[in-house]
Amino acid sequence: MRSLLLSTQKLSPGVTCVLLVTGAATWAATLPWALQLRLSPLIIGILLGALIGNLGAQRLPATLDDGVVFCAKKLLKLGIILYGFRISFVQVAQVGPMGLALDAFIVASTLLLGTYLGTRWLGLDRATAVLTAAGSAICGAAAVVATEPVVRGKPHQTATAVATVVLFGTLAMVLYPLLFRTGWLPLSEHEFGVYVGASLHGVAHAVAASDAVGSEAADVAIIVKMTRVLMLAPALLIIGYWVRKKGSPEDGAAAITTPWFAIIFLGVAGFNTLDLLPAAWVAQLVALDKWILTMAMTALGMGTVFSKVKGLGPRPFMLALVLFAWLVGAGLFGTSLLF
Fold first, then answer.
1. Mean of the pLDDT values across residues 109-121?
2. Can you give the three-state secondary structure of 99-127, one letter per residue?
3. What pTM was estimated for this model as a whole?
4. Phi, psi for residue 40 in degrees, rounded to 5
5. CA torsion sign, 331 to 332 to 334 to 339?
């Protein structure tokens, strides 16, 4: 009991600080400019956190450190677990085998291409390459922060990967409906929904781009996208195994264990499929999860040092640009072939 009390006292200053910034980010996300740009509290949280962490680096008391690290590491995993309440296996059935095959192809190929090009062609460190690839391949910022503990990424690497998702996800969100309306995409509205769900970065990006075309496209895009999100768990297990095999004792990667939080996330999604909880409870859990993930992103931002981000140079954005082009082309090819 005494140790629990001491631990709480040690963590409370930093956790309280993160809570306050999270509240500010959540409020800012409701402002007209943020809604227009589709900036979620998670994105605003990491930006505010980075701003505070860098401008106040010499002034923030050291007593905040333990709480900030707790939010960035422990709360992050809890947020990913609760993310399972947004998904059900019924959605996988609705997508059908062709949609599932398309999602699997996009996730696997983007992860492989991003990791290979990032480390071999651009000379990026492994963590930054994998984080950037995961954000593009699966579900944007949520995938980046979920992959961070598996590859033992640093805050500045995570923040850089999130920045690439925001940039190219937003670009795709605007570009896709424009291409559809001008006739450059030879797809029906239903097929456009599949294309968007299979190839856009974040859930918010997919919702915005498909909704701009029509309700049918939006319904299909959300189902295809959330099925892609469900692949986060197996992707993390495979990444964890790969990193452990490729790791070296010097960088500590060999000590990485199975990401159990990813397995629990899958279990939560399975439980959610049974529809045992009232819809109002699930909505509250989803809202809680959004808050927890925003806290984790805010804490990651507070640990981001711009000098280290600058040291990575333009290479992560070059990688993200290549992956963006891949998603546009491969997603269109796969949608046309399978549908």
1. 94
2. HHHHHHHHHHHHHHHHHHHHHHHCCCCHH
3. 0.75
4. -80, 165
5. positive
